[in-house]
UniProtKB/TrEMBL annotation:
Designated name of the protein: NADH-quinone oxidoreductase subunit H
Compartments in which it is found: Cell membrane; Membrane
One Gene Ontology MF term: quinone binding
Keywords: Cell membrane, Membrane, NAD, Oxidoreductase, Quinone, Translocase, Transmembrane, Transmembrane helix, Ubiquinone
InterPro entries: NADH_UbQ_OxRdtase_su1/FPO, NADH_UbQ_OxRdtase_su1_CS
Major localisation: membrane
Lineage, opening ranks: Bacteria, Pseudomonadati, Bacteroidota, Cytophagia, Cytophagales
Length: 355
């Protein structure tokens, strides 16, 4: 019995891992198409129909380009840096529930690789490790531009994780759980957290841009100042791993935002659809598969939003970035926690008075 469940779980993990890599690969294509649309250009259109093979061509180019390691770099750490960034990025999606449950051969299969009751803490811990990949690569390159990019990445990560963590405290106060599955389950139907936490969502979204080093917070790899930042000295697939890790982080950030604030796999009238199908097993599986589609639709929307913002807003100055993090977002997130606590207390008092 346990061996069969382990096989199902292993298949699910492989599928999610493959989907993560596929989505990250074609996010590069989508990025270039979105940029082309905004700038009134065509974008990739030569490699395959509509340029759909362009990501494959880019991957082949990365694999076959010359491998270059600077003579005075720390060779071991120079190699380890991109691997750390990529591995940590892939680990982040382990606790995200991409759907509810499937019933196969009488067994209930949870569409989540790992269910832990501290799922958000797991994501925070793993994402915090990601900056080590940037720091190691920037320092090991023995290049002043790379080192400056790595220092910027570390300070930016520290600054914006505080506000992000405080925005999560408000969600914890409302749901009473750090389990992503439990948070998703409490948003059944159209009862999404975005209606109760609009300020927390704006804070979390802004911090997500900073954590993924995306414009307007892409100061660690600012081309106009630092050439390429922490990956200036990298070439071939090591550079590819850094670039790939960024898109995986965007995918994971979009999935977390969808889970915390937009109901995850829940959608309106799902219970009506479930009750309309007479066979309970079939009803459960149909609703679950539709929920998976809804979840990925939300994720793709936020991936598009990340790209839209990149090609719309200018880059911040570094002093503006730090001021926003410390003097604006942290006080706002503390205020959001106070307002949430006051709202919960007021709701409980009104409920006791009425009932």
């Amino acid at each position: 019995m346990e061996s069969v469940e382990l096989i199902y779980k292993a298949i699910y993990i492989l599928v999610i891992f493959g989907l993560t890599l596929l989505i990250a690969t074609y996010s590069t294509y989508a990025e270039r198409k979105v940029a082309a649309f905004i700038q009134d250009r065509v974008g990739p259109n030569r490699a395959g129909p509509f340029g759909l093979l362009q990501p494959i061509a880019d991957a082949g180019k990365m694999f076959f380009k010359e491998e270059f390691i600077p003579a005075k770099s720390n060779r071991l750490l120079f190699i380890i840096g991109p691997g750390v960034a990529m591995i940590v990025a892939c680990m982040s999606s382990a606790v995200i529930p991409f759907g509810d449950t499937l019933i196969i051969d009488g067994r209930t299969i949870y569409l989540q690789a790992i269910e832990v009751n501290i799922g958000m803490l797991y994501i925070f811990g793993v994402v915090s490790l990601g900056v080590y990949g940037l720091m190691i690569g920037g320092w090991a390159s023995n290049n002043k531009f790379s080192l400056l990019g790595a220092i910027r990445a570390a300070s930016q990560n520290i600054s914006y994780e505080l506000a992000m963590g405080l925005s999560i405290i408000a969600i914890l106060m409302m749901t009473g759980s750090l389990s992503l599955r439990e948070i998703a389950a409490q948003q059944e139907g159209f009862n999404w957290n975005i209606w109760y936490q609009p300020l927390g969502f704006i804070i979390f979204l802004t911090c997500a841009f900073a954590e993924t080093n995306r414009t307007p917070f892409d100061l660690p790899e600012c081309e106009t100042e630092l050439i390429g930042g922490y990956h200036t000295e990298y070439s071939s697939m090591k550079l590819g791993l850094y670039l790939f890790a960024e898109y995986i982080n965007i995918f994971v950030a979009s999935a977390v935002i969808s889970t915390l604030y937009f109901g995850a796999y829940n959608f309106p009238f799902m219970e009506n659809l479930r009750s309309a199908i007479s066979d309970p097993v079939l009803a459960n599986n149909v609703v679950t598969l539709l929920g998976v589609g809804v979840m990925f639709a939300k994720i793709f929307f936020f991936i598009f939003f990340f790209m839209w913002v990149r090609w719309t807003l200018p880059r911040f100055r570094y002093d503006q970035l730090m001021k926003l993090g410390w003097q604006i977002l942290i006080p706002l997130s503390i205020l959001n926690v106070i307002l949430t606590g006051g709202g919960i207390l007021l709701f409980d008092r009104v409920k006791d008075y009425l009932f």
